[in-house]
Amino acid sequence: MNPFRDIHALVTGGSSGIGLATVRRLAARGARVSVIALDDPYLAALRADPPPRATVHLEAADVSRRTEAEAAVARCVAALGPCDLLVTSAGIARPGHFHEIPDEVFEQHMAVNYFGTLYCIRAVVPAMLTRRRGTIAAISSAAGLIPVFGYTAYGPSKYAVRGLTDILRIELRPHGIHIACVYPSDVDTPQLAGEEPYKPEELKRIAGTVKPIPPEQVADAILRGVARRRAVIFPDATTRSLARLAGTAPGFTRFYMNRATRRARRRGGPASP
Predict the structure, then answer these.
(1) Which domain holds residue 231?
(2) Which of 23, 58, 125, 210 has the smallest CB count inside 10 Å?
(3) Catalytic residue among 119, 154, 159, 183
(4) What CATH number has the domain bearing residue 139?
(5) Cross-strand bridge partners of residue 37
């Protein structure tokens, strides 16, 4: 049985990385797919080379702006019908030492990662309530589960997504709406590559012990988790283990991250004042 055939799936940030991989997987499974993404070269490339033999609708919008997000969702619904599945994949990441990150970077992370998720969810929920069905899969991060050195701007925005989905899951379940939260670790995407110049040396050394997973692995986990109505979706075993530790032994998680930071500093020498 294919639960995705002929549904309308809307993916934010669907022109690159995890979002694009999810769009291609959904299209291959017969879904009608809407994409909301920034008007940039990634969206232009998708417009020039859409998934073959698929119904794909593209909208250029900045989801961190409420009116743009709402209008883009409305146009997607007008084009392909009510939204059955929303995947909120739009996001940014800009690491750095806390005292060196500009204020506007903190604000931008909350605007894109949290409010960009919130606005799109709020745009689709009323129709889902009326129809008494629908699924929302929001992308958080492993950095939304455990504290990671260098992610003081990124991590809190992903913790916020986690908190939002935890509450919505309880509130919307009686109305037939399924809420999932996805926790990928490092993923081989343009965003991860874009982080590199900003990473503190401690983060580079810690991250160097983790092999990035392909975005297709995350997309497959999303579809599998949605089909099984999972509340939380872990695309890799390492993140699943970290989540278990964070829930049962938060003290050990802090100890582990502090030790990893100390070892990273010893290997490379002092990396910050």
Answers:
(1) 8-268
(2) 210
(3) 154
(4) 3.40.50.720
(5) 60
Catalytic residue among 15, 89, 140, 185: 140
Is 204 labeled as catalytic in the residue annotation?
Answer: no
Residue 2 lies inside a defined structural domain of this protein = no
Write out pLDDT tens, residues 70-114: 999 999 999 999 999 999 999 999 999 999 999 999 999 999 999
**Given this model, what pLDDT does residue 16 score?**
97
Neighbours of 51 (CB within 10 A): 17
| Separation CA 175–CA 38 (nearest Å) | 32
What total of structural domains would you count in the chain? 1
Classify residue 184: in a domain, yes or no.
yes
The answer to whether residue 245 sits within a structural domain is yes
In a domain, 1, yes or no: no
CA angle 182, 228, 92 (to 5 degrees): 15
pTM attached to this predicted model? 0.92
pLDDT tens figures, 102-132? 999 999 999 999 999 999 999 999 999 999 9
**Per the residue annotation, which of 15, 158, 183, 199 is the catalytic one?**
158
Helix axis angle for 237-248 and 250-268, nearest 10°, is: 120
Residues sharing a CB contact under 8 Å with residue 89, sequence separation 6 or more, in sequence order: 11, 12, 13, 14, 17, 18, 19, 22, 139
